[in-house]
Amino acid sequence: MPLRNEFMATERTLTIIKPDGVAAGLTGAILAKLEQAQLTIRGIRRLRLSTAQAEAFYAVHRERKFFGDLVRFMTEGPVVPVVLEGENAIARLREIMGATDPSKAAEGTIRKLYASNIERNVIHGSDAPETARQEIAFFFAEADLV
Ligand code: GDP
């Protein structure tokens, strides 16, 4: 099988190790899994989101009934946003993360291994090229991606 074909593209995507993952000391284990999957770290930070930042980041979900809980969860402690780059990085990150609900996540995925429930699911990943661009810009200046 060729290493590259015309359906492949080098992409950037955003992941966030959520407060539950950071608090449980899983930052290193999760980053190791991503790097082992040939996703290269181009930018990394550690910060605590304000309520306004969490509401803005998850604005697409503001009408959902779990929005308040989600914002409380995402602000309860530090998070680690990371820009990843690789072939088909957006879809591959989603695959390695596993389904939103860990009870439905495939064996070996990060959420299957480490998530507690549908809310406290240890990791975020951008779902499409446009959201990846927006979410990367939410945390990083282009000049900081090296
Ligand atoms: P993702 O793209 O797999 O992260 O899933 P979504 O974009 O649908 O949801 C964003 C985040 O909201 C999820 O990762 C969970 O942390 C949280 N979430 C999603 N669905 C639910 C739900 O039904 N209840 C609660 N409490 N949280 C949810």
Model description:
The protein is α+β, with helices and mostly antiparallel strands. The protein has a single domain, classed as Alpha-Beta Plaits (2-Layer Sandwich). The chain is built from seven helices and four strands; from the N terminus they run E-H-H-E-H-H-E-H-H-E-H. A four-stranded antiparallel sheet has the order 2-3-1-4, sandwiched between helices. It binds guanosine-5'-diphosphate.
Task: Please give the structural blueprint.
Blueprint: E1 10-17, H1 19-23, H2 27-36, E2 40-44, H3 51-57, H4 67-74, E3 80-87, H5 89-97, H6 110-114, E4 123-125, H7 129-139
Antiparallel strand pairs: 1-3, 1-4, 2-3
The structure holds guanosine-5'-diphosphate (GDP).
Ligand names: guanosine-5'-diphosphate
Per CATH, the class reads Alpha Beta
Beta-strand level of the residues, as a percent range?
Answer: 15-25%
CATH topology annotation: Alpha-Beta Plaits
What is the domain tally?
1
> What's the number of helices?
7
Calculate the terminal CA-CA distance, rounded to whole Å.
Answer: 30 Å
Mean pLDDT across the residues is: 96
Shape: globular
Note poorly predicted spans: none
Largest sheet: 4 strands, antiparallel
